[in-house]
Amino acid sequence: MKILCTSADSLPAKFQPDEQAFSFFKSAGREGVGNIANTWKRALKRDGFAPDAATWDFVQFCLAACAADLACPRATSADGWTRVIELTVGLHEPLRWIGYEEHLANMLKLLTGDHWTIRLLGGGEALPAGTATAVPHDCVCLLSGGLDSLVGGIDLVTEKRRPVFVSQLAHDDSPRQIAYAKRLGGPNSHWQWSHGITFKGQREPSTRARSLAFYAFAVLAASRLSGERVQIFVPENGFICINPPLVPGRVSSLSTKTTHPQFIAMMQTLLDGLGVKVVLELPYRFKTKGQMLEGCLDKDLLDELASTTTSCGRFRTYNRTHCGRCVPCMIRKGAFHAWGPGRDRTTYVHESLAESDKSSGPDDAMAAALAVLSVEKQGLDRFLGATLGFADAAERASYRKVLGDGLSEVEAILRRDGVL
What we know:
Blueprint: E1 2-6, E2 19-24, E3 34-36, H1 40-46, H2 53-71, E4 84-91, H3 101-112, E5 115-122, E6 139-142, H4 147-158, E7 163-168, H5 174-185, E8 190-193, H6 211-222, E9 230-233, H7 238-242, H8 261-274, E10 278-281, H9 289-295, H10 299-305, H11 327-339, H12 364-378, H13 380-384, H14 393-416
Parallel strand pairs: 1-2, 1-4, 2-3, 4-5, 6-7, 6-9, 7-8, 9-10
């Protein structure tokens, strides 16, 4: 599978066989050529963005990887999942990226589970040379519309930090993203963008690389802030950061690595090497979702808003209602249960994990139950296997504890609902 992403003016006259091409930020006006974030560069210039070349090329690369992830169907691969992707990206200043091709390929392999080959060329879009204006913020915080990002935002503003919130446009979550940012940071404290990737043909629904657009937006937002190294906060609980497979068959990219500490470390290495002055923070990597709720610095505000957040992996399948049985819903229920009775006012299609639901795909409640029984029989270390192989000795015990505690939160609702 071959993907080419570059500026419309740099597209070759002819493409390679089976190559899908994309143009950055404006339409190429050519049949079969997809587009990434049409007119966005013009909007950034109007809004006062003037990023340096390293930041801008990081944005272009991340959006190109998102386009490749969407345009390469897993169903056509040899095993029905793992793809072999050749990605060529036009950058504004490719020379600073020399020597990072293998690092990029390994980073994307960890994220998506595929085999990547990366080629970096000139020909990317030039910088959006807006008139830079200062913004009154001291950090960036990702805001998805989920429960963890809400806690992260509440904690930052309670600590008197001044975050600018960055969101990736999502039809189901966009209104609540706007509402949360306004409530926490007031007006003009939120940037909400979309990757705007369009093309003809089948779209791959697994979207394991979608988070790269989120990180690209955050790094771009950081370019408007002053400071030697701008902090970018990624509020995610430790259990989901590591996302251990509940059953042996659910490995590699079947368990997403969007906020995995190893992936974050690889991305930090890349940003440092490129000279992008940001630091990625995982402040809750040693806390479960329940512990995040219990430790929130403004529990009254959290109690008011928590049940309006979105966690469900099948939210659109059930007409924008939490299914109540997928892994994210189980973790959400377990967190509320740990926080205290009466806190969870979420509407679930399946209030009990014991309810049958054959239409929603894998039986995640049964997988969670098998994981709990496996830990009871064989111990936590045997269950985790090589899951913590990435962690250094100083942090391994903390990661082990958060995984054990997180599984215990899920176990509590499995037992409450009579699944165990």
